[in-house]
Amino acid sequence: LDVARDKAEKLTTDEADERVPAWSRDGRWIYYGSTRGAVVIEVAGGPLVRGARWQLWRRPAPGQRNANPEQITNDGGFAAQESVDGSTLFFTRPDRPGLYARPTRGAGDDLLVSREPAVPDFAQWTVAKDTLYIVAREDLTEGHRGAGITRLVRVGWPDRVRTELRPLARLAGGGSLGLSPDGSQLLYTQTVRWETDLMTSVMR
CA angle at residue 27 from 21 to 33, to 5 degrees? Predict the structure, then answer.
């Protein structure tokens, strides 16, 4: 969306799903999760279906000469953010927990940075200069990550030293973290009130 001209432009046209767009730090690229290129598979002798395997893609931002999209990951990718200096791409995967990293330029292996966030919290993390802030969920009685207590953790980069910070009471699902430009304040979404009601209907 060009805010000044109030004009929207469609950026992807492939027969696939695209979600979770994010700008590169220099504004030249747009990262997004896509099922583009998913293989066609046969399920239990039934009809052929398109296997929806999410991967990270990027395409040049509007106005660039070359608008061809590029596939970034081969082993799954969904939500992404660049490091402050633009040298590293951090991302989550849709089928397993954890935060991963890979170089934005040149070849390199995917590196597991943190075992959090859980899959439902694919956007509950954010990038600072030398730090990643991530939501962790842990059931202390069963040791099952992805449920129970929610807590903010800080992971250093590139040393990956993990520090537990404050609990996040009543953390809302499906949210994201937002860091202030000076890195001093963090935004998160809290469920203030949750209510259910019983209703009755006359049966005729």
Answer: 20
Residue 34 CA to residue 57 CA, distance in Å, equals 7
Q: What is the DSSP letter of 61?
A: P
Query: In terms of DSSP bridges, do strands 162-167 and 186-187 run parallel, antiparallel, or are they unpaired?
Result: unpaired
* Confidence bin at 204 (pLDDT 50/70/90): confident
89 vs 26: CA distance, rounded Å: 13
**Rounded distance between C-alpha atoms, residue 115 and residue 88, angstroms:** 18
Q: What distance in Å separates the CA atoms of residue 91 and residue 79, rounded to the nearest whole number?
A: 5
Which residues lie closer than 8 Å to 14 by C-beta, 6 or more apart?
Answer: 34, 36, 69
Output DSSP code: residue 129.
Answer: S
**pLDDT tens readout for residues 68-105:** 899 999 899 999 999 999 999 999 998 899 999 999 98
Which pLDDT value is given to residue 76? 92
pLDDT digits (tens, 9 = 90+) for 131-183: 999 999 876 455 444 456 889 999 999 999 999 999 988 888 788 999 999 99
CA-CA distances (angstroms) from residue 29 to 7, 78, 82? 19, 16, 11
The two three-digit tokens of residue 156, written as one number: 């250093």
Q: Report the alpha-carbon distance of residue 144 to residue 44 in Å, rounded.
A: 32
From residue 64, alpha-carbon distances to 56, 68, 110 in Å are 20, 10, 28
